[in-house]
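The protein record quoted in full:
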Amino acid sequence: MRRHRRSDARHGVRAVNLDDVRELVRSLPETEEILTWGTDVTFRVRGKIFAIGGDGSDSISVKATPETQADLIDMDPQTFARSAYVGRFGWVTVALDRVEPAQLKELLVEAWRRTAPKRVASALAGAQDVRG
């Protein structure tokens, strides 16, 4: 994962919201959005969750490795935190009003890739190779 430096002043940068997350996630193959537990929006590939948010929420939890989680929290503890309940597995909570859009995209694509079956994930890799 690339280390993104963020400045505390986000001059001219619009905060990311759940609709931005939805737009990005919909571009990934075989992804679906399911309302779970009556309040949580879960993003899944082949039925497996890789991100959890909520309408009106200012954060989203994203599947990551424990190493990535630790690196992100060390880099910017105001933007990244260990997720409740699933944090011990590497999930990281991301403050949508603070995260750089490119970094969130990278985190979501990597979470999808780690969750998707190999054949599905390799199809995305092949498509990205063609685009250059």
